[in-house]
Design brief:
heterodimer; A: 483 residues; mainly alpha; 2 domains; B: Rossmann fold; five-stranded parallel β-sheet; two-stranded parallel sheet
């Protein structure tokens, strides 16, 4: 049941009403059952895995609370169970393929490993659980006593498939309160959900048409067309994943829960470093707190800081997908950050010589554009089916293969009128990103009555007329769902 | 309390506005249908209870029957409310729907549809243009394949992406409604292909579906009998004909259906005055020349077999329709390339 489906909208509304009608003691069991049902719809067999991970983490954490002397051992055992499951299901195939390639190069027989299906949401819930175990070990979060509460923390249906990756200290207290959505929560939740739905169906899935066409046969398109497709993918992945996050946060809000924010206008960032503080924040902060800081962060000298950055981003790439393209994507982001840190003094002094103020708006726009361009190169690796395809796309872009004119962007599967509408939608999104938070648009909207209902009606109409759904459209899964 | 009331009012107004906007968007975005069957928008412009005969069936009805010619020949007012490759069950729902606004004295159903597959590529159009109501819902629920239902219940599912190809007609017809059809449900074809002798059309026999279709023919006959309407199940004269055993079986089955009549137009072929070198659009359909001849013969057959007398009403309107047909018929026929559909 995809978030953007009519079935999910009905399911969500029904569960929200039921949850509201129930006495507080039944709310958590109800949400837990519903969450398990939701998860089982994807692949019933993997529900057992979710239950096993939940049980392992719960008892490891309780063990740490009861036997402080064996805390470390229990943490290791708990992490081994949780992350071991992730490694087994997500990386066994990748490991097998990589080793087999090496063996084949040496003229040896390839490894024979079983093919395992990737359980839905495993990267997300295993990270949430691992973070919780480390928090309990560090004493930042008390070990949850209630098995029901902890189970819901792991499997809460709006977040179980693609995050945001929750923290025990953030979500567990909310579950303990057995909250129910108040009027403000419902207003915020519905607004957030509809904004996400519009982003997904009106922008992301329409951009997907262009991107999929280009990546289905990049050799058939000119460098300019591929550049256009690469820029479209940068926008698509943002709209797609932030749409998912909006819909997850909006869904949770209907029950009174506030999930962690995942995006903060990331493409307005002036550097890659800033970008990673605004993009997939729940994951970025997870890596910061549970990998970067334990590695020493920036406290052990510059060289160690750079090495730590490269390690964190390589692991982040691998977290996204078990393929070398993701590793390169992550590594490239790490290299950008290292280069950014190395060249920062020179760039600052250059600007000072030219008397360009660091607060200048023009500089901010320029830096945002450069950051976007650098990221667009990395997203090519993220989107490409293989390293060879990514290399082909980048080669054709940088050599302007096929010449510049005619631009012929309409040959990517979308007519002028659609492209224009898409451009308008992206422009509206950029404006919202730039000014929405500053002007407190969401808060103002929730406080108002008529404008809010007007926006809701408008969003529904926009989705129903301009959205990529129904006949002639292939429903697109959320990009991050496969992670 | 005041805020709560305001919220409820805003919700009610918003829902109404949303529904109105969606209804309007559906009307504008749905492709407009002026011919080739399923022309419900035009049919509903007819004055209530103003037809003597109603024709149902597939393209063999709407390409072969010109009501204006029937009127000229007999004074009987008729309408063709057929649909492309229309199955018998959908014809049944068409009849039920048409009887909500018309009280014909005879209903003609072209029954080649008994050999059609249960679901055809035109099911979406045949049901999708029906007026909203019980008949459309029943047809949507019982006569569609997986995947069609969402769009039949919510047409924007099929047509929302047409916003970038809208024409002036989409807005005019969508906002102001359809105009009455001067050809009264008939679709005029101007091409011809010379034909030789008759041949047996090929099809994949499906006994279960055939019996289901017969069951729906029985329902049509019963409905007609209940309403005091003469049901006529007929086969249009074609070059590609149903196998003789199917025709014989149909004849036998119809004989037991609540007073319904059966007529095989192919048996009267020699009396139709058809010129096989000029009057066929293809093996199954007449062009305007053939349709006019067949319609005049049909009018004559009706007079002889059903003893229906014209009411003489709306003669100015029908004269205008006859003139419109004549104007169409006066356009030259062109030879159709072989193989072109």
């Amino acid at each position: 049941m995809q978030f953007q489906s009519l079935a999910y909208c009905g399911f969500l509304a029904a569960v929200a009403i039921l949850h509201r009608l129930l006495p507080s003691r039944l709310r958590t069991p109800c949400l837990l059952l519903v969450s398990y049902f939701f998860y089982a719809l994807w692949e019933p067999g993997f529900l057992i895995l979710l239950l096993a991970v939940t049980a392992a983490a719960y008892f490891a954490a309780r063990g740490m609370a009861r036997r402080p002397a064996r805390k470390k051992l229990l943490l290791i055992l708990g992490l081994a169970a949780v992350l071991g499951t992730l490694l087994l299901f997500k990386y066994l195939g990748f490991f097998g393929r990589s080793v087999s390639a090496l063996l084949a190069a040496c003229g040896l027989a390839p490894l024979r490993l079983p093919r395992l299906l990737l359980p839905a949401g495993i990267s997300f819930f295993s990270f949430a659980v691992s973070g919780y175990l480390i928090d309990v070990y560090r004493g930042d979060v008390p070990a949850e006593r209630s098995y029901l509460t902890f189970s819901l923390f792991v499997s809460f249906f709006p977040a179980v498939l693609s995050g945001p990756i929750e923290r025990g200290g953030h979500l567990l207290p909310q579950i303990r309160e057995a909250r129910t959505g108040g009027a403000e929560d419902v207003k915020e939740g519905v607004t957030r959900f509809l904004v996400g739905l519009a982003k997904k169906l009106v922008i992301a899935d329409q951009l997907a048409i262009l991107v999929n066409t280009a990546y289905a046969g990049p050799e058939k398109f000119t460098g300019v067309q591929l550049l256009f497709a690469a820029v479209c993918y940068s926008l698509q992945i943002y709209c797609d994943f932030s749409a998912y996050s909006d819909m997850a946060i909006g869904s949770a809000r209907l029950f009174g829960f506030r999930l962690l924010e995942n995006f903060d206008a990331p493409y307005t960032s002036r550097s890659i470093k800033e970008f990673w503080r605004r993009w997939h924040m729940s994951l970025s902060f997870w890596f910061r707190d549970y990998l970067y800081f334990p590695l020493g962060g920036s406290r052990k000298g510059k060289l160690r800081t750079y090495v730590n950055l490269l390690i964190v981003f390589t692991v982040s790439g691998l977290w996204h997908g078990a393929a070398w393209t993701f590793v390169i994507w992550g590594l490239l982001n790490g290299v950008y950050q290292v280069c950014g840190a190395l060249t920062l003094p020179a760039r600052r002094s250059f600007r000072a010589r030219l008397r360009i103020s660091e607060d200048s708006r023009a500089l901010a726009v320029w830096q945002a554009l450069v950051t976007f361009a650098l990221l667009t190169v990395t997203w090519v690796f993220f989107r490409a089916a293989s390293f060879a395809q990514a290399a082909l796309v980048l080669r054709r872009i940088f050599t302007l293969a096929g010449g510049v004119f005619p631009l012929a962007v309409t040959s990517l599967g979308m007519g002028r009128a659609n492209l224009l509408t898409l451009a308008l939608a992206v422009f509206a999104l950029v404006l919202t990103d730039l000014y929405g938070k500053r002007l407190g648009m969401r808060e103002r909207l929730c406080r108002s009555v008529w404008p809010r209902w007007g926006v809701w009606v408008l969003l529904v109409l926009i989705v129903l007329i301009f959205g990529a759904y129904g006949s002639g459209f292939n429903p697109q899964e959320f990009v991050y769902f496969k992670f | 309390m005041k805020t709560r009331k305001k919220e409820i009012l805003a919700a009610a107004v918003s829902v109404l506005l949303l529904l109105a906007a969606l209804a309007l968007a559906t009307r504008v975005l749905t492709p407009k249908r002026h011919d080739m069957g399923s022309t419900w928008g035009q049919f509903l412009q007819e004055k209530r209870n103003s037809t003597d005969l109603l024709f149902f069936g597939s393209s063999l009805a709407y390409c072969d029957v010109a009501p204006a010619a029937i009127w000229e020949e007999s004074g009987l007012r008729s309408y063709v409310m057929a649909g492309a490759e229309q199955t018998i069950p959908i014809s049944y729902y068409y009849l039920r729907e048409a009887l909500r606004t018309q009280t014909p004295r005879a209903v003609f159903v072209e029954v080649t549809g008994v050999i059609y597959k249960r679901h055809t590529s035109f099911t979406k159009v045949n049901i999708g243009y029906m007026p909203w109501g019980e008949n459309r819902l029943q047809a949507s629920l019982h006569e569609t394949e997986d995947g069609l239902l969402p769009g039949l219940l919510f047409p924007l599912y099929f047509y929302h992406s047409r916003w970038n190809e809208l024409t002036a007609d989409d807005f005019r017809t969508g906002l102001l409604g359809y105009r009455a059809d001067d050809l009264v449900g008939y679709t005029c074809l101007h091409e011809y292909v010379p034909m030789e002798g008759p041949e047996t059309r090929s099809y994949e026999p499906d006994e279960k579906n055939y019996n289901r279709n017969l069951n729906y023919l029985t329902k049509i006959a019963s409905l007609c009998r209940e309403r005091g309407i003469q049901a006529v199940f007929y086969l249009a004269p074609t070059v590609g004909q149903l196998p003789a055993d199917v025709v014989d079986d149909l004849r036998a089955k119809v004989a037991g259906m609540d007073g319904a009549l059966f007529w095989d137009g192919n048996e009267d072929y020699d009396d139709l005055g058809i010129d096989p070198t000029r009057d066929y659009y293809d093996k199954f359909h007449f062009n305007v020349s053939g349709a006019e001849k067949f319609s005049r013969y049909l009018a004559d057959w009706t007079k002889r077999n059903l003893s229906l007398t014209p009411t003489g009403e709306d003669s100015a309107l029908w004269q205008k329709r006859a003139d419109a047909l004549r104007t169409k018929a006066a356009e030259p026929l062109t030879r159709r390339e072989e193989g072109k559909k």
